[in-house]
């Protein structure tokens, strides 16, 4: 993060910056210098380091600094819990306290320097962990946990204290490999996990401990949870470290995260990329959609929440499933952890009520799920057991009675046998024994014999019925929900993540490692701390092979006439100056000029207006007049979390009125550039409407990719770029940047 307004530590101290294009020092990754080949053109790591956290979660020896057994003291309860945890994981526990000889019957040493053996994990029950950090490094302790609060979550003084703590940990890490969890964390990592559950597990990451409780209690429903990482303020270890580590654990089927803010956007994306490569779903609640959420998150953990539109786009780009509620986090993570890859994306809705089926189908279709009509042959097969007057097209209405006898299982098996169906969803709005008991049992038995996903929505508000508590929750193959909305959210995430994983290609594999020839040309045009004129900004685009109109910059009426003859009539004339952002509003643009007299008069009028408005010009542009097409905008901005970002949207005044834009974080490839266009509400304009020809999408995509290359290579020089409008001509004719603004750092 670069200068968080919430006082979060800058990451520039952890990441080397580009000194000159092509000259990148290697940044340290977890205390080790990265190889130059593992850096992109802006000097940032291309691959995530994976910290070895095995000894954090399963240490052989644990030191508790500040241990206590005095009744009524907070440290006593914590020490007692750590004793129980150490016994469960088979670790030796060493109390550390300067004035006690023993704690809970265990010998106590006065300082970490006097620990009797090598310690993997030190738990710091002290108000100021800073003095202990240096001692831990000397004794080669691998991990430490700091519970103390009063750091970056409290404001400027706390930010400074956390900076000192982080620096001490980094220095110690370089010497001994020490890593710190916290400060402002809690005991969630040391909870008692059930060991009697089978199947893929959920690994949990939270910045607020209580927000992970709903996921942790999934164990009571038979869903395995393997780890819990409460990251707190993330002075050192961060959510990204745990995502990288959990994605490598064979027992982890999905990672559930509650994120109040990201410590470093790049680290998060590298970790998400690692999970995507391995096909491990990451489901996240990320607060900060509103100003209130941003403010509250800052006061809680001192994190920078980031521009939410950029966070949202970055998560989608790397396959992170973003949900809003903790109930959605719970249900979606549970489904993604246990569901097998779908054989088809078709969803079949099966119910005993036509009303229930219609209601669920409306919601599912509106959410983007595909409900294919069953084939005539399949419908005829179903009508062997379902009355002819009932609709079995999809949704499938059985009328109720068939579920109570041998026909019920036949119907379910027939639906699951349809090759177009990958998911079967059965909403049961309420218990109606004995039919609901039989239906639940048939669904569970069928699920055991198929690779396809079977989901049940149990709508009863009671939740104590045997069909629910014993039959459905007792199955590891049926995904059971309590609401329509959560079922639809989870199934949609399952299908979308499967499509994402099947086609995922890591953008970091294709990221440029050396600067292009355009880079040094562009650097010569940059003016630190200033804004470029339109003419200079277009030279920047031309350096990266982006087409601009034929134009000449002139400083006299006579020169403007000569330029018009060279450019070719008709022409456009525009005032050009570094401070001109909105020329049209000031009357500083003249279009459709067809004669020398018009050009001469236009020059005089433009310069007169500029003098009247007290606008400094570097000249007047005489430009080729380009045929009309679809006006788009392509731009670069710098996000505090993720660095350079690329935006595309409808251009001209529409970008300000409709705000119809899509965002990506470089690096990205052609597939992501095209998906940006698909996200636009005005996408149909590019396909041609009202008799207009289709636009040159290939040329538009090429501009987007060239702009992202520019954003990467000029990361330390370019603050902002705005190409508006980019005129996208009919197919095969290209795209032309009619206007551009650029600001330098």
TrEMBL record:
SUPFAM superfamilies: Glutathione synthetase ATP-binding domain-like, NAD(P)-binding Rossmann-fold domains, Succinyl-CoA synthetase domains. Transmembrane segments: none annotated. InterPro entries: ATP-grasp (IPR011761), ATP_grasp_subdomain_1 (IPR013815), CoA-bd (IPR003781), NAD(P)-bd_dom_sf (IPR036291), Succ_CoA_lig_flav_dom (IPR032875), Succinyl-CoA_synth-like (IPR016102). Residues 538-576 form the ATP-grasp domain. The keyword Nucleotide-binding applies. GO terms for molecular function: ligase activity. The keyword Chloroplast does not apply. Pfam families: ATP-grasp_5 (PF13549), CoA_binding_2 (PF13380), Succ_CoA_lig (PF13607). Gene3D superfamilies: ATP-grasp fold, A domain, ATP-grasp fold, B domain, NAD(P)-binding Rossmann-like Domain, Succinyl-CoA synthetase domains. Keywords: ATP-binding, Ligase, Nucleotide-binding. This is Acetate--CoA ligase family protein. It comes from Streptomyces tauricus.
């Amino acid at each position: 993060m670069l200068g968080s307004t919430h006082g979060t530590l800058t990451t520039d101290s952890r990441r080397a910056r580009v000194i000159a294009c092509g000259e990148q020092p290697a940044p340290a990754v977890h205390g080790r210098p990265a190889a130059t080949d593992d850096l992109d053109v802006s000097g940032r790591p291309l691959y995530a380091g994976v910290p070895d956290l095995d000894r954090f979660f399963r240490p052989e020896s644990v030191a508790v600094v500040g241990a206590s057994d005095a009744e009524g003291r907070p440290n006593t309860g914590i020490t007692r819990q750590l004793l129980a945890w150490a016994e469960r994981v088979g670790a030796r526990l060493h109390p550390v306290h300067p004035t006690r000889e023993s704690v809970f019957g265990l010998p106590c040493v006065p300082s970490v320097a006097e620990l009797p053996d090598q310690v993997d994990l030190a738990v710091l029950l002290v108000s100021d962990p800073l003095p202990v950090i240096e001692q831990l490094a000397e004794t080669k302790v691998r991990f430490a946990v700091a519970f103390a609060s009063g750091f970056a979550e409290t404001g400027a003084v706390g930010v400074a204290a956390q900076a000192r703590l982080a620096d001490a940990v980094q220095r110690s890490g370089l010497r001994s490999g020490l890593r710190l969890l916290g400060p402002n964390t809690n005991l969630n990592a040391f909870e008692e996990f059930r060991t009697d559950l089978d199947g893929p597990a959920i690994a949990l990451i939270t910045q607020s401990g209580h927000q992970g409780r709903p996921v942790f209690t999934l164990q009571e429903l038979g869903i395995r949870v393997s780890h819990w990482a409460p990251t707190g303020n993330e002075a050192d270890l961060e959510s990204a470290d745990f995502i990288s580590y959990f994605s490598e654990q064979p027992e982890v089927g999905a990672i559930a995260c509650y994120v109040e803010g990201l410590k470093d956007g790049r680290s998060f994306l590298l970790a998400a990329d690692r999970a995507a490569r391995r096909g491990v779903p990451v489901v996240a609640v990320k607060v900060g959609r509103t100003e209130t959420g941003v403010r509250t998150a800052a006061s809680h953990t001192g994190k920078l929440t980031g521009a939410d539109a950029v966070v949202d786009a970055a998560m989608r780009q790397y396959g992170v499933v973003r949900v809003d509620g903790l109930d959605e986090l719970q249900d979606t993570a549970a489904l993604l952890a246990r569901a097998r890859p779908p054989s088809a994306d078709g969803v079949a809705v099966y119910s005993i009520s036509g009303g229930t089926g219609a209601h669920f189908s409306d919601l599912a279709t509106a959410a983007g799920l595909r409900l294919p009509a069953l084939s005539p042959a399949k419908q005829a097969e179903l009508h062997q057991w379902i009355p002819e007057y009932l609709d079995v097209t999809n949704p499938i209405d059985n009328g109720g009675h068939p579920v109570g006898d041998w026909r019920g299982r036949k119907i379910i098996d027939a639906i699951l046998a349809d090759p177009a169906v990958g998911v079967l969803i059965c909403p049961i709005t309420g218990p109606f024994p004995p039919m609901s008991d039989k239906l639940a049992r048939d669904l569970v038995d069928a699920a055991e014999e198929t690779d396809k996903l079977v989901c049940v929505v149990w709508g009863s508000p009671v939740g104590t019925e045997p069909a629910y508590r014993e039959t459905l929750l007792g199955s590891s193959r049926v995904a059971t929900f309590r609401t329509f909305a959560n079922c639809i959210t989870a199934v949609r995430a399952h299908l979308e993540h499967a499509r994402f994983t099947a086609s995922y290609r890591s953008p970091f594999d294709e990221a440029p490692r050396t600067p292009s020839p355009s880079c040094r040309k562009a650097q010569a045009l940059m003016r630190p701390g200033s804004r470029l004129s339109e003419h200079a900004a277009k030279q920047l685009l031309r350096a990266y092979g982006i087409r601009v109109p034929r134009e000449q910059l002139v400083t006299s009426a006579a020169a403007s006439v000569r330029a018009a003859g060279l450019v070719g009539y008709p022409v456009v004339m525009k005032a050009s100056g570094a401070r001109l952002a909105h020329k049209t509003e000031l009357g500083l643009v003249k279009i459709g000029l067809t004669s020398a007299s018009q050009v001469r008069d236009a020059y005089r009028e433009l310069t007169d207006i500029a003098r009247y408005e007290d606008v400094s010009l570097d000249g007047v542009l005489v430009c080729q007049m380009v045929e009309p097409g679809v006006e788009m905008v392509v731009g670069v901005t710098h996000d505090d979390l993720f660095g350079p970002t690329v935006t595309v949207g409808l251009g001209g005044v529409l970008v300000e009125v409709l705000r119809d834009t899509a965002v990506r974080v470089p690096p990205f490839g052609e597939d992501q550039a095209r998906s940006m266009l698909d996200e636009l509400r005005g996408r149909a304009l590019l396909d041609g409407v009202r008799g207009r020809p289709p636009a040159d999408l290939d040329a538009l995509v090429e501009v987007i990719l060239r702009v992202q290359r520019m954003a990467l290579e000029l990361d330390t020089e370019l603050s902002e770029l705005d190409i508006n409008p980019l005129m996208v001509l009919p197919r095969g004719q290209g795209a032309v940047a009619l206007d551009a603004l650029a600001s330098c750092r």
